[in-house]
């Protein structure tokens, strides 16, 4: 079944255009307001309409950004009362601080940790992700194929794909866990992407995972994510 899916990917000639990831611009702008102290813990935030005007973005884009920030436990959306910046002492904590205390972490250790977390995230995402998130995951997967075929770098697209799966799981605890390992995952991907044929395999796996998400096949999404990480892990375990 997996081999057949991979063949279908290779046969695809045209990739449909999708929307630009404008919500990421909104997320960064909001986080910047928090970092600079313009918005403080407990503050009531402007309405979606006001933020859309202030950020020069569409209302649907701002809503998507706020939903992601709510999943990340950064904002609280209380229907009928408004939106608030969470009064959470961990809000502005740098997740790399804890990691630095662990010393040097091997790539094998990181991949083993990802193997425990990300397949479950994929299954949960297939069950709970919004239609918009599913659409965005497919866009990112297709972008990786295009970037790989052109010989370009799909590093940022790869990171965004896995982050969006975490957000789509709708599980604040697992989202927090992923945010803790993301900084070292960034460095690790620079190494795994240099493995021969890994770029092609990674882009193909991402499309398969996105298709499983579209079809809401949680077990298949889990299996594919596990196979994807195992593929990388085998290269480093002799």
UniProtKB/TrEMBL annotation:
<dbReference type="Pfam" id="PF00392">
    <property type="entry name" value="GntR"/>
</dbReference>
<dbReference type="InterPro" id="IPR000524">
    <property type="entry name" value="Tscrpt_reg_HTH_GntR"/>
</dbReference>
<dbReference type="Pfam" id="PF07729">
    <property type="entry name" value="FCD"/>
</dbReference>
<dbReference type="InterPro" id="IPR011711">
    <property type="entry name" value="GntR_C"/>
</dbReference>
<keyword id="KW-0805">Transcription regulation</keyword>
<keyword id="KW-0804">Transcription</keyword>
<dbReference type="InterPro" id="IPR036390">
    <property type="entry name" value="WH_DNA-bd_sf"/>
</dbReference>
<keyword id="KW-0238">DNA-binding</keyword>
<dbReference type="InterPro" id="IPR036388">
    <property type="entry name" value="WH-like_DNA-bd_sf"/>
</dbReference>
<feature type="domain" description="HTH gntR-type">
    <location>
        <begin position="20"/>
        <end position="88"/>
    </location>
</feature>
<dbReference type="InterPro" id="IPR008920">
    <property type="entry name" value="TF_FadR/GntR_C"/>
</dbReference>
<protein>
    <submittedName>
        <fullName>FCD domain-containing protein</fullName>
    </submittedName>
</protein>
């Amino acid at each position: 079944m997996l081999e057949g899916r991979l063949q279908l990917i290779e046969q695809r000639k045209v990739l449909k255009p999708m929307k630009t990831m404008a919500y990421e611009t909104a997320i960064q702008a909001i986080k910047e307001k928090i970092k600079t102290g313009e918005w403080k813990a407990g503050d009531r935030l402007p309405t979606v309409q006001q933020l859309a005007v202030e950020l020069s973005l569409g209302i649907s884009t701002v809503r998507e950004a706020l939903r992601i920030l709510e999943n990340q436990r950064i904002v609280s959306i209380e229907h009928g009362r408004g939106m608030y910046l969470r009064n959470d002492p961990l809000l502005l904590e740098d997740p790399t601080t804890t990691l630095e205390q662990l010393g040097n972490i091997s790539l094998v250790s990181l991949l083993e940790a990802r193997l425990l977390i990300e397949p479950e995230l994929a299954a949960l995402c297939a069950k709970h992700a919004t239609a918009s998130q599913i659409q965005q995951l497919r866009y990112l997967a297709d972008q990786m194929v295009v970037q790989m075929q052109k010989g370009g770098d799909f590093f940022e697209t790869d990171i965004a794909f896995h982050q969006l799966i975490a957000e789509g799981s709708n599980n604040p605890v697992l989202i927090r866990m992923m945010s803790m390992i993301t900084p070292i995952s960034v460095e690790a991907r620079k190494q795994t992407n240099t493995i021969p044929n890994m770029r092609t395999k990674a882009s193909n796996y991402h499309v398969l995972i996105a298709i499983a998400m579209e079809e809401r096949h949680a077990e298949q999404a889990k299996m594919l994510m596990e196979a994807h990480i195992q593929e990388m892990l085998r290269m480093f375990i002799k």
